[in-house]
UniProtKB/TrEMBL annotation, chain A:
CDD domains: TM_PBP2
Location of the ABC transmembrane type-1 domain: 101-311
Keywords: Cell membrane, Membrane, Transmembrane, Transmembrane helix, Transport
Protein name: Putative glutathione transporter, permease component
GO cellular component entries: plasma membrane
Biological process annotations from GO: transmembrane transport
Pfam families per the UniProt record, alphabetical: BPD_transp_1, BPD_transp_1_N
Entry's family note: Belongs to the binding-protein-dependent transport system permease family.
Primary localization: membrane
TrEMBL record, chain B:
Annotated Gene3D superfamilies: Dipeptide-binding Protein, Domain 1, Dipeptide-binding Protein, Domain 3, Periplasmic binding protein-like II
Protein name: Dipeptide-binding ABC transporter, periplasmic substrate-binding component (TC 3.A.1.5.2)
Keywords: Coiled coil, Signal
Alphabetized PROSITE patterns for the sequence: PROKAR_LIPOPROTEIN (PS51257)
GO cellular component: ATP-binding cassette (ABC) transporter complex; periplasmic space
Domain of life: Bacteria
Organism listed in the record: Nonomuraea gerenzanensis
One Pfam family from the record: SBP_bac_5
Amino acid sequence: MRLLRNRPLRRVAETIGILFGVAVVVFVMLRALPGDQITAGLGTEAAALTPAQRQALEQYYGLDQPLVAQFFSWLGNMFTGNFGYSARSQQSVLELTLHALPVTFELAVLSIVLALLIGVPLGTLAASRTNSARDAAGQVVSLAGLSIPAFLLATTLLSIFAASFGFNPNGQGFATLTEDPLLNLQQMLLPALVLGFGIAAPILRTTRTAVLEVRSNDFVRTARAKGVPERRLQVRHVLGNALVPIVTMTGLQFGYLLGGAVVVEQIFSVPGIGRQVLLGIQQKEYAVVQSTVLVIALAFVLVNLLTDLLYRVIDPRVRAS
Amino acid sequence: MPRGAFSAAGLAAALSLALTACSSSSGPAASSTPAGQAGGSLVVGVTSDPDTLFPWKATQFTAVNVLQNLYGTLTEFDKDLNVVPGLAESWQAAEDGKQLTLKLRQGVTFADGSTFDSKDVKSSLDKIMDEKTAAVARASLASVKSVEAPDASTVVLELTGPDAALPANLATVNMAILSSDDTEEKLNATPNGTGPFTLGKRVASQSITLNRNDKYWGAEKPKVGSVEFRVIPDESSIVSAMQSGNVQLAVFNDPLVAQTAEGGGTITVAKTPQLNYHALQLNAQRGDLKDVNVRLAIQCAIDRKQVLDTAALGEGEVTGPITAPAFKSDPNKRPCPNRDLAKAAEYLGKAGKSGGVTVKTIVSQGEYATSVNEAQNLKAQLAEAKINLELEVLESGAFVDRWVAADFDAAVALNGGRPDPDGSYGRYFTSEGNLNKVAGYSSPELDKLFAQGKATSDQAARKAIYDQVGAHLEDNAAWIWLFSGYTYTATTANVTGFTPMASGSLQYLRTTAVG
């Protein structure tokens, strides 16, 4: 057990444990869902299958194997890079994921950037004079961000832009960043705005609270008394110290975004990882859902790890401990 | 003052953000329009990706629509759903009805260049009849004993008895004729058919593009160079895509979406009555519903027009069992054509259930737009007749599971209709039908009527027989037929030559042009 006292090693062990847990849960939950790939594909026509027909199909999809065997063969295959096969699209899940993950990653990054651009300045502004008009304005923005559902904002934006300006890059075929950067950014703009607006709210609130808290600290008063210029004081001393909770919040939100902004991807037809999982669930494509969810979990864990590392950079106290 | 500097920075950031949003919104508007139209290509908006490219197993709407344009069938339907020649130029039934001889079209080739002949027909039909293939249309060939190919352009089907519904049954894409050299595995990735289009490019879950087949046998070659089925999962997003000119054609199911689409003024929406029908399926094998009087009471307590109006905005027509244009039932010729609560009470009394009954009803959520609304309206109406519908709203997968296992008293269902009434109901309401367990009702009279219908080839005589089938089903309240909806075909102004069909089929993409 001494090994586990080694912090990095403990993190790795934790990560593996978490991923295994996710694998088990996803596997079990998928099978607990009513319907299998055959009924999902055939719908009510499945009732017309004779037992021999059904057996032939079960064999084809590998559903005739015992569950435990299915689980371990899937997990074993994943280690060798074989994520399974989508019967629907005739492609390997790895290939599908390698296409979908960068799309969602890009969307997540853009959303976070937009959220930070909205949330941090407004949060700082709101904190600069509590109970003032600007504080109230900040509250309104964050309340709107939290309470307007993404699907509503998305459909509204889409219909306004499409009907009034004829601007709807999302109705065209999707362009990746490498294929056509300009079109790609246009296509990402509205979904990133919708997502970014939603995330800006918690970031705004966190920023406001953190700034207020830091400002009440003795060292700020000391610095001010020592004649540190106000601007430098605000940026370096106050905001610099308020960053830790903001980073935590941002990392958390980023993880969620990677998990797939399902609704937004669906409405704007962005072929990201969220849509891949959704389609997989609808079609009961076990291989697609299981492997994709595991990849998402891995991404989530990695983002958390990175956030941890970032703390050490921005907060010397964490480094010391 | 210094604090002010900070807020100014924030303001600037917010402003510049708003500015970027504005400038990029006006910039690309000009460039976004021509992309979809260049080079005579048509973009069709669909909500989902085809779930399979293998025609014998395709039941999903998008898959059927795509495959119909890639594969050929022995017979086809015209726009009024009459059976017309396809890969078979003509067919002739023997005197005793125990043989059907088909003469095949000459000079037809598959997409890969190989020649089509009787060998391909025999191998296709043999494989469809083989249980191991798990082809969904297998039951439609139940009357076929064997398939012979005496020469390259002739196919003879040996039948167990006359089967007037067979030519119509051969027209669905589930009966597509495949090259005898092809395997399912190969075709899953590269379709190889005799249809008006061939597969171009496919991007999983995003789009599937078909190119014009210049060697297509039809007198008229397709007008457009290519058709792209573009996946836009949300129907209202398809409307936005049409408004901005990225998509030119789409088929909607949701009346509300169709209305929004029409509202803008740039999109034309054609309404076509569907073969599909909405019904309250009753399981006559279970509980109180075993008693015909209870079923009749339910039938009399429902105002179908009200269900249609409240659940589907009045978009549709009240229907009887048979929806095919040539065989249509008259909804006024049934017990209680109008709601009659007194009669309903009388029937309940006859069943000894004057105190009321409870019927466990399954409803699917998400499979089609109106299901839950229909169920709630039915519940409200029936409550006034002391009939309690206990609703169980299920996710569509769960619904299908229960439905397939016939594990319900009643089900609010949207069933697919077919151009031939035998194809629609033979599998449900004959004792040997492979969906009879789900239908929950059969009788010797019905068995006899269906057999007669199959054995008769005269259209007028068949119509009379299926009128009797319809009457029997409603007199016994096997199910309660409610209404048929519309399919909404939306096109932008530059699209011409598309003919929507009652089956929702997109087969007339081949005559469609984009201006």
